[in-house]
Amino acid sequence: MPLMATAQDDLVKKLDGNKSDSAKKKFTFTHIIDLENTAIKNQGSSGTCWSYSTNSFLESEMARMGKKPVDIAEIYTARCVYTEKADNYVRMHGAVSWGDGGSCHDVINMYAKYGAVPQSAYSGLNYGTTKNKFGEMQAILKGMLDAVVKNPNGKLTPNWKRAFEAVLNIYLGDQPETFTYNGKAYTPKTFAKDVVGIKPQDYIELSSRSDMPYYEKMILMVPDNWSWDKVYNVKMNDLTRIIDNALNNGYTVAWATDVSEKYFSWKNGVAFVPEKDWEDMEEEEQKALFNGPKPDRKITSKMRLEAFDNYTTTDDHGMHIVGLAKDQSGKEYYIVKNSWGEKNDYKGYIYVSKPYVLYKTTAILLHKGGIPSEIKSKFVAN
Hints:
Layout: H1 5-17, H2 23-26, E1 30-34, H3 49-64, H4 74-91, H5 104-114, H6 135-150, H7 159-172, E2 179-181, E3 184-186, H8 188-196, E4 203-207, E5 217-219, E6 230-233, H9 236-248, E7 253-257, E8 264-265, E9 270-271, H10 283-287, H11 301-309, E10 317-326, E11 332-337, E12 349-353, H12 354-360, E13 361-367, H13 373-376
Parallel strand pairs: 4-6, 9-12
Antiparallel strand pairs: 1-10, 2-3, 4-13, 5-6, 7-10, 7-13, 8-9, 10-11, 11-12
Helix pairs in contact: 3-5, 4-5, 4-6, 4-7, 6-7, 9-12
């Protein structure tokens, strides 16, 4: 997800302002599926939602496998990404995005290459704050990388990498080579293998674009896919079919999406797609947007693709789908865990309608066991 720290803060403030004091009184949600998930966290002033959401997903995977979930250090994962991303940035002469952002697959890829550590071994808070605050660090890192790309010596030396890692060490803390957890010594790789215990090859990422061949892999066309990973392209309606099947079989889902619309209300804890665009509503309709359940717009694959191509759908945010609920009218919503703390009506969770997910999803990631066999059988390896 591409938001820099300041942009993330601005987005939260904007969404926090889109509220109705009576919204919670006008919605009655009945939970249908509640899958185990760990405590709500706060990513602070950092664009690390992708790490918080997908590591939350891994913690739920531990519970699904019968393990006691651990509090996985999100900033350890992010720090590993910054190291890898810096290499790409320099190799591409700066012609790729830079910032806090990343994708769901980054967590799986870093887990496979570097391992994982518990929060107790790596808080990432090495600069006098109690919450992430990455603006200064990222400005310095980008300045360094841009200086390297200018190549003032006429030939790059390997020293830039050591300088870059030194800045990460100063702001986030040295990477732990070994640490103790529950009285036993681990390395990041042995902790990932022996404690977390997932198999990276078992996880599949998917998206949907109607201009690309279905059930084949395509490059995920979002700015923060800095590693150019490929994902399976499925039909639009397959997205909710897959999520429903996963939830019904005990699998949660990591979710990357756009949250910049007026009809995503963080304060109210509700997101849906109203039948009218915000600009076409009368003022009274705008004020009443979250004053109880309302019908969703009918979403088509054409609408979905157009939203990608005209930038009304962008890769804003990552969250974690942990259940299913319905409102008093019978409409179904996914129960979504966020990483903006508990300062909303549902203490860190939001109810998201299925049409919203069809329209605004940029990618989902889940265990292959959660995907219906009929869909999996269509996948073409490439």
